[in-house]
Request: fold
Amino acid sequence: MTHPAQPKASHFINGEYVEDTAGTPIPVIYAATGEQIATVHAATPAIVEQALSTAKAAQKAWAKMTGTERGRILRRAADIMRERNHDLSVLETYDTGKPLQETLVADATSGADALEYFGGLAASLTGEHIPLGEDWVYTKREALGLCVGIGAWNYPTQIACWKGAPALACGNSMVFKPSETTPLCALKVAEILIEAGAPAGVFNVVQGMGEVGGALVTDPRVDKVSLTGSVPTGKKVYAAAAEGMKHVTMELGGKSPLIIFDDADIDNAVGGAINGNFYSSGQVCSNGTRVFVQKGIKEKFLARLAERTGNAILGDPMDEATSFGPMVTENQMNIVLGYIEKGKEEGARLICGGKRADMDGYFIEPTVFADVTDDMTIAREEIFGPVMSVLDFDTEEEVVARANDTEFGLSAGVFTKDFTRAHRVIGNLEAGSCFINSYNDAPVEAPFGGVKASGVGRENSKEAIKHFSQVKSVYVRMGDVEAAF
Ligand code: NAD
Reply:
């Protein structure tokens, strides 16, 4: 019997599902059981061509609609997503393995927020009037044209919406390629947009590995590329986009610091560290995986952290009581287990977890290492799994310097009751998305993105509009033209 997660076809182009079984088969494995639940096929060159030419053809008419009309469609799509939140959350859980307890509140709901927010902004994308005596300049905010979105596997619905919603609000069309690991959810986003009234061809989904992503990025018809992925992929995609002088948004990896001063409320700080390391089983780019704890509260913090981490419920992700799911794939599980071994070998003190859970699926126990030093592999490389490194520090000056000593710069957090210090420390940290007495909140109203190797550009908020549109400036002369000859 066909599994309910199996989509009607692999791709969604020009308002309908499209199949081409000549493409490489991509198995979809449910991470909680290891069972294959669906198959899609990577896009062939013919499918890539169909998607790009369709999106190119649909864009001009879409941009000519009023912002109010475009916005209404996006907001209708948001309503449909919310109505179907339960089914979409179940699909997200099949796609990623994340527990339903999370997907019910963090995926389709976050996607709907983006569709609603950018739908609301669409009618207000205006330019300026710049008086110059009798003459004037006016500016227009115009669409970039055809945009490509490429997703990572941790938030397949959210990533499709965080890219699709601002792109469409600005009058662009999009071809979106989900991660080959989680190909299911973006198809639903495309389907819902059509149901909400989007013209066929403005949002298309094609499947495939890096090769298909590469074909999309290098196509001369493409004006912008927005990638969510790792730093190595980001460097390749950024370079390929530069060849064609295309716009880019790069949402890449991190190794973010979370700094806890000894005046902090311990339970809130522990809660922040748990949210910043174990949500989605640690598969979150902005995670605060280097937890710097001031020496005075170190042992108290570790004791409370171990106690609360022991309350994680590993189990069937479809059971709403489950609060901690598996790694997305067997491969990702093995990568993370490799880092855990490195932590042990390099002398970090294991506080809890530290191994694969004794159950079906790709579960790793939530793991905390203490006495981690700055040069250890687990403190330097992005693990993308449930492995928290706790490091000690004495002074503010010292911790800021150590926190900044990384190629990454996605996020940073600080817990302290001293508000002057909180703002000063955040001011000195090299990171794009920061938190004071909290961690990992990502409302659509707030800009999201990194500095240094963690990325270029911002998603969400009004900032995203700047990255999916460009300004045309028009000089208007009222008098005669003076010329030298
Ligand atoms: P990845 O870099 O392996 O793949 C990301 C996407 O890029 C996939 O769809 C992949 O098929 C595609 N791709 C790979 N090579 C390509 C190429 N040469 N040209 C075009 N496309 C190509 O990342 P992943 O393993 O899917 O995701 C995990 C990474 O993503 C982590 O580093 C994580 O930090 C990062 N991430 C960042 C954010 C953010 O918003 N900053 C969010 C989620 C994940």
